[in-house]
Amino acid sequence: MKRMLMNLFRLAATGSFLLLTKFALAQSVSLQSIAEAASPPEPATIFVAKEIVTLSPNKPNVTAVAVIGDRVVATGSLAELRAAAGDQKFTVDRTFADKVLVPGLIAQHDHPMLTALTMSSEIIAIETWQMPYGTIPAANNEQEYRARLKEANAKLKDPNEVLFSWGFHQLFHGELSKELLDKVSTTRPIVVIHRSWHETFMNTKALEKLGIDQAFIDALPEAAQKQTDLAKGHFWESGMFAWAPQLLSAITTPQKFHKGLQLTQQYMHTNGVTLASEPGGLYSKELQAAENAVLSPPDSPFRYYFIPDGRSIFEAFPDNAVAEVKKTLSWGEGMTSITPNQIKLFADGAVYSQLMQLREPYLDGHHGEWIMQPENFSKAFRTYWDADYQIHIHVNGDAGLDLVLDNLEENMRRKPRHDHRTVLVHIAVSDKDQIDKAKKLGAIFSGNPYYLVMLGDRYSKVGLGPQRADNMVRIGDIERAGISYSFHSDMPMAPAQPLFLMHSAVNRKTVSGRVAGPEQRASRMGALKAVTLDAAYSLRLEEKVGSIVPGKLANFTVLADNPVTIAPEKIKDIGIWGTVHEGRKLPIQHNNSNVNALGPVPNEASTRLLAEAIHAGHRHSSQHPAGHGDICMANRVFGEALGQMK
Asked: What pTM was estimated for this model as a whole?
């Protein structure tokens, strides 16, 4: 053991991390190879911790880790690493002596653009938000909401500045209209975005500022006209998306968006994130440049990987989609990058608007919707499959999953591929036979366990019924089948807090406090892997990150306790000191240091009502014709619009 550790130190000191990684796997390398790679040695740092969860089968738990530069050199006890260092210079860092290190947490699927817009707004929402600069309390009723809106108007010093607020929901905050907003101000433009990002309300001044009158409405497509109410200053779905560029020009500027991205970056770091990804990254070079401005500098606390939107590109270039995808690879820089040979496709509609495609009808007899029509989906899938792309697929219902698995099976028979890692994303409603079929076909999963927590109670009564609702996001079956799975939040759909996602999957407690589908609970070790090693595997990054082993990047999240051994009900409350990112110690720094994690704080009463609102407010109201209601749709539309801004 000592000799092996000494060889690891020697390899790392030469900077030969490729050999180091191979050595860690094979545990042998020639001295000649070391000599050929020799260069002036770099000093090592040995971090000591109360406990280090490595996720290495050989050394699952240690108390010290040696780092040279941005890489892990060796793990073990302090005594073992001291002895192994030989003449290698090193320092011992005891900053984490009373802390637990886990592999750096990964935010596998989030939307930084919409999150940035949300965080740069005046948040008046149905739950409390913990922000770097302080706590924003929930607005629980109509009176509180209107009072907060008036306060927000009063604190703006520039009389011409637009008051842009996000978080309104009619089931909590009452009715909203142009007339009511005019009572807040007749001189300042006011724009209120619904919590879903699929509706907006404006006062008279805002309509005038944007030039929205009856002539403007009459020029919109027919579908958009039907989803507008000019008299109330209310626009939803197509009626809102049809003029997204004008809307964005009112609610943000490049400077505000930049600030919102900075808050998003700080928010994710505070939640222990060391690597993030956006599957379905927007097809806009201009928007990517705006995101790069904040996320790509070398002092960023994490790397961000963007997976191209294969749907948009295929629709625009059906005969040349792969070539067009390749053109986007140069759009990243520094700490951001466009992931090669990976794309995102979309199958059926959203969970929140109950437009998933289901095998058996909804309880009220309505049906779901396709985001990509099956024939078009099949053509796009085949195109990217033949180009050897890893395909991430947004799919929510069991009938939607049938479509995806049937296409995967057809293409595996036609052109078999080894290790294709097709990722089935969201998987709200599925059945056991589909888990078995996915395993046989080599697919893997990325689930959002927050769906069950938030929607399980209401959907057991409305839409799905108890059996389908309680088995939403069936991680237990996936884990027992031995299939790799990861977790994601789809922020701003759910809090981008990996520990909270772990908590949701391990406990499966709904907002009423009951355990729904106890047999579908994830193990604590499985849940930790879902936000570390298996999340890395889903992005084809497992050779770089995801576990604490020699040769990988020195990415650690520093916690107050071990999420694998702590009581399951306490996982979400574990304190986060900060991170080590590629060898850099990055403590959390913000003014709201009395909270463990930033972001929205789920509220039992509001989340229960929100589940009702999702169904009643978006599908059954005559004023809200059915739309996909999906955050990815809003992200796409506003991303394209934002990319056009100068």
From this structure: 0.87
